[in-house]
Amino acid sequence: MIRLGINEGINSSVVVLDGDRLRYAVQEERLRRVKNYMGFPTEAVRRALADLGLSPRDVGRVCLSNLVSYEFDKDSFLAEYEKRARTPFERLQHADQEDLPGIARRWLRRDPGAELTRAKTAGERYCQRHLGALGLGDTPQVRRDHHLLHAAAAYFGCRADHERETLVLTLDGGGDQECSAVYRAQRGRLELLARTPQGNSLGNVYSTLTHHLGFTPHEHEYKLMGLAAYSDGSHTGAVESLLASYLDLDPQNPLRFKRKVPEPTWKLGRRYRRELERVRFDNAAAGLQRFCEDLLVRWVRACVRETGIGDVVCAGGVFMNVKANKLIAELPEVERFDVFPSCGDETLPFGGVWLDRAEEDPERGAALGLDTIYLGPRAEADLQDALAELPAGVEVRQLSDPAEEIAELLARGTIVARCCGPMEFGARALGNRSILADPSAPGVVHWLNKAIKRRDFWMPFAPILRREDAGELLRVPDSLPERISPYMMHTFETAPARREELAAAVHAYDKTARAQVVGREDNPPLHAILSAFKARTGRGALLNTSFNLHGYPIVTGTRDALEVLTSSGLTHLVVGDRLFVRVEEQGSA
Question: 407 vs 10, which has greater pLDDT?
Answer without folding.
Answer: 407
